[in-house]
Amino acid sequence: MTDAKTLSYINLYAILGTLENLCELDSKAKDLLKDLKKPISIGFDVKGGPSATITFSKNGCRMEDGIKPCDIKLPFSSPEKFNGMIDGTVTPLPSKGFTKIGFLTKTFVALTDRLTELMRPTPEALEDREFFELSTTLTFYTIAVALAQIGNQDEIGKHSASYMVDGDLLFGINDGPTATLRVKDHHLVTIKQAPEKPRAIMKFADLDLAYALFTGTANALECVCNGSIEIHGMASMIDNMNRLLDRVALYLA
Amino acid sequence: MSKYPVYNHDKGREYFDRALKVIPAGIYGHLGPSEGLWIPIQKWPFYSSRAQGSYFWDLDGNKYIDYMCAYGPNVLGYNDPDVDAAAKAQMEKGNCTTAPSSIMVDCAENLVDTVASADWAFFCKNGSDTTTLAVMTARAHTHKRKIIFLKGYYHGDFQWAQKIDYPGILPEDVCHNLVAPWFDLDALQKLYDENDGDIAGLIAQPYDHGNFYDNVPANKEYWTSVRKWCDDHGVVLIFDDVRAGFRLDIAGSDHYYGIKADLICFCKALANGYNMSALCGGEHMKATVSGMTYTGSYWMSAVPFAACIACIDKMKKIDLPSLCRKLGTQLTDGLKEAAANNGFHLVASGEPALFYLRIADDDSLMLHQEWIAECVCRGLFLASHHNHFINGSLTEDDVKLSIDIAEDAFNEVRKNHPELR
Which of B38, B157, B179, B364 is most worth mutating to test chain A (most A CB atoms within 10 A of its CB)? Predict the structure, then answer.
């Protein structure tokens, strides 16, 4: 049971939001941006759903919430239409920025294709350790952001969030990426760095375990039992984050 | 140097590694690392090799004084000679038979004579069996659908008692559950009005003894007003006494709070570890329960009935509730003093017989989890997230030993945190 509105929040903030990390960590993505002469921004405006602006420069990209002054604006009449763009069944029509359409159709598409290659990898590609580590790291960031979207938008996810107390939850992988899930009045925000003073901690032993969890071949509770997931602190936060994690799999399947 | 050496659990770990291959999660549920919050797992013993009185021993030969009491069933002490003798005698006569043993009747009569609100007893195996039967009975009795729960509730793990976001639970499984805050009669009325009176029952533990927060005892005024509200609105009042039963009052926790519930659920302390549970209730509910389709393969096994009779008789003989209150108070007073001696603020809440502990010096519970782990690996078995249990075999010397181990553990935590000085 998923809903289109929640999926649109995940698609925008979690999936397209991972372009930030892709452009920072992946040499092929860096190559696509290196010749950019000046920054260019794309605004995504989903009626009845989320809106955000991604600004690309030769140094990478950054997503900001809401529609900022942008070079290309892509309006979507519904969450379903926006989700259609993500799964390739809808071609977006810009309402602004026709002269910069080339960036949209070439560079942006090349970046999202590269993201897809890494986020939906073939078994052969994963045999390359460097590819595997990048793929799992990017998946981690996508999931970390998706957790907050599900806790804020999905009806069952909101139930889990309603049991979470205020504070920062550290969610991370040993020797890998770390994020903060910040809870305030049962509203969740993901920050892609470790908190200063976590109220709860959930850390995976390594990237291999994270990959197994993300692909459903391992279960988080089982890993807590065998010690490969380390937890500390306010367990009710971790418990409810696990329930959100279950629903992430449903949306990202 | 620590006064109480830190245990190692090599053999326990070896067994656990074997278990992980053949048992989901190794030890699933509340007795295992996940729900039991073994943080860090290395400090916990995994398995027991034997038990006696207030103690158990692990596979590595380490001895633990046990305040979790198998999460409640150990109410008189492990291997209580009177209960075990009664069980053994019954075992020689018969246990799981086609025609149930007549000791079932003796057991029901004993419960009816003991529990103030009981005019009958319906036997099952686990607490969930009885809470489920109670909810079904409330619906059958009133022909209404909704059940009111109180916030922080736990009434077992059957589908209806779980929450909508739990794995395997459908929205339809829990769509007739309503949740009200504790100690708020207006909230009950609001739920009643919002649902056009379609309320079959209210199920609650005797007081707010949820996990992860200080437990809040109830009082007679509260329960008297809830009783009246249920009567005025035709709502069946169900007391879930599975956890607290007999430790507060041999006549039932509803009696302790000055009321009679319509239905009351017992399990843990009923037979000192022999597996049985019972739903009891007033005469006015008996015809409805008689018509329920509800049974199980082992629900009329005779050995637990014999153990139950012996257990109830002994709980009365030693005045278990008074003993639990006295020793629970001595223990928690001593633990708080040991904490203060080391610069920590330990909060003990709830009823002394089922005390809940929390170090209040940080709001993440990490310090508390650290102290609990240091206690466990020195032989004082506590839990960081759940209330504890006093048992009838506990002595004042055991309490003194416990406080001494706790102080040693506090000292260790203090040494590990120079920033707190």
Answer: B364
B15: containing domain: 10-76+320-420
Q: Do B210 and B292 fall into the same domain? A: yes
Residue B275: is its pLDDT beyond 90? yes
**Is B39 in the A-facing interface, judged by CB distances under 8 Å?**
yes
Nearest chain A residue to B33, by CA = A225
Q: Which residue of B34, B170, B179 is the best one to mutate when testing the A interface, meaning the one whose CB has the most A CBs within 10 A?
A: B34
Could you tell me the two tokens for B273? Answer: 């570890």
Q: Residue ranges of the alpha helices (H) in A120-234?
A: 123-126, 129-153, 155-162, 207-214, 220-226
H, E, C per residue of B344-399: CCEEEECCHHHCEEEECCCCCCHHHHHHHHHHHCCCEECCCCCCCCCCCCCCHHHH
Contact B165 A224 (CB under 8 A): no
Q: Within this chain, do residues B271 and B349 fall inside the same structural domain, yes or no? A: no
Within 8 A of B27 by CB-CB distance, chain A residues are 225
- Is residue B404 assigned to a domain? yes
Distance from CA of A163 to the nearest CA of B (A): 10
| pLDDT class of A158 with cuts at 50, 70, 90 | very high
pTM exceeds cut of 0.80: yes
**CATH fold of A139-252:** Nonspecific Lipid-transfer Protein; Chain A (3.30.1050)
How many A-B residue pairs are in contact by the CB < 8 A criterion? 66
Q: Is the pLDDT of residue A8 over 90?
A: yes
Query: What DSSP designation does A96 have?
Result: B
Based on the fold, state whether residues B206 and B285 are members of the same structural domain: yes
Closest-CA distance, B21 to chain A, in angstroms, reads 11
Q: Looking at the domain that runs over A4-119, which CATH code has it been given?
A: 3.30.1050.10
CA-nearest of A190, A154, A147, A159 to A5 is A154
